[in-house]
Design brief:
The chain has helices at 2-33, 37-45, 47-71, 78-111, 118-147, 151-173, 176-183. It has 184 residues and is mostly helical.
């Protein structure tokens, strides 16, 4: 019974992470359409919902996952460690790419009267890239959690998730120069 309950918590909280990604996608759409400082600030304020849902879900997922991996799997499945590494990579990408650029947009909009500066546009593009990289990593984690492959396939899945994320991330950054020119 305890294992079933913890598995439910683990899956439900993982759904919360996906919900946070969905909210973030909507916030990024709103941010992409923002032209005035007030619109940019409003969109940036919506990131608090992503942080609330995402943080609570991530904590529940990690704690229930560690318990399940320790008590029931004894850390024997190679997919467990691989998924954990992807989760750490996801956190690093979020902290470095999203955190820094959210702060940069906040500083830029506090100092100017327009939401269309090169710095803001560059930060918006980086936030989009961070989003797609993290979404690809989460997709890889979900695959590992459901299929539970051996070590070779686990590493291949991780590599594909990273390459897919980086490719889509670069694609999200593509055209940044065009948007910068339009912002001037």
């Amino acid at each position: 019974m305890v294992q079933s309950l913890l598995l439910f918590v683990h899956v439900a909280s993982a759904m919360g992470i996906v919900a946070a990604l969905g909210i973030e996608g909507l916030v990024l759409l709103q941010l992409g359409r923002a032209r005035l400082v007030e619109e940019v600030r409003s969109a940036m304020g919506s990131f608090r919902y992503v942080q609330r849902v995402g943080a609570a879900s991530l904590i529940a997922t990690v704690l229930s996952g560690i318990y399940l991996a320790t008590v029931y799997w004894r850390w024997e499945g190679p997919w467990i460690g691989t998924a954990f590494i992807l989760l750490i990579a996801n956190a690093v990408v979020g902290a470095v790419m999203s955190g820094r650029n959210q702060a940069a947009i906040g500083r830029a909009t506090a100092a100017q009267g327009s939401g269309r500066s090169p710095d803001v546009e560059r930060s918006k593009a980086t936030l989009r890239a961070s989003f797609v990289i993290r979404a690809a990593l989460i997709l890889g984690i979900v695959f590992l959690m459901t299929v539970k492959p051996g070590s070779d396939l686990s590493l291949l899945v991780a590599a594909v998730a990273v390459l897919l994320g980086l490719t889509l991330g670069l694609w999200a950054l593509r055209g940044r120069g065009e948007r910068l020119e339009q912002a001037k």
